[in-house]
Design brief:
By secondary structure, this protein is mainly α. It has 3 helices and 2 strands, in the order H-H-E-E-H. It has one domain. A two-stranded antiparallel ribbon has the order 1-2. A hairpin with a 6-residue loop joins strand 1 and strand 2. The longest helix is centred in the last third of the chain and has 18 residues.
Length: 121
């Protein structure tokens, strides 16, 4: 019988960690499959995300005026590709959309095109 492992005992895996561990392997094996006109954009997005929050890329230093304790906070990348930064982007986008909604009852509908006729329209 296996022991259940609590969330605290598990190492928390992030998208950034996955990219750190596998980005070079992906580049070696799959890079040629990415269209040439997209490669620069993909490279820039991943590089930004991997450097997000790293003080080497810029930071703000906070110093307590009473005890002198210092805290260094790395700048974020502000990229939509980065999960933490993208969340902020999405929240801001949603807030703008809410401002544009007309004050009237709404219904939301999703229409799909059957697979048989996709691409024939």
């Amino acid at each position: 019988m296996s022991k259940k492992v609590s969330m605290k005992e598990k190492e928390r895996i992030t998208v950034k960690q996955i990219f750190k561990e596998h980005w070079s392997q992906f580049r070696e094996e799959k890079w040629k499959g990415i269209p040439l006109d997209m490669q620069k954009s993909v490279e820039e997005s991943v590089t930004k995300m991997l450097g997000c929050g790293d003080p080497k890329n810029g930071y703000t230093k906070y110093v307590c005026t009473e005890c002198g304790e210092e805290k260094v906070v790395g700048f974020t990348c502000k990229s939509r590709f980065c999960n933490p930064c993208g969340k902020v982007y999405i929240e801001n986008w949603v807030n703008k959309q809410v401002e544009n909604i007309i004050e009237t009852p709404h219904r939301h509908a999703v229409f799909t095109v059957p697979a048989e006729i996709r691409g024939k329209i």
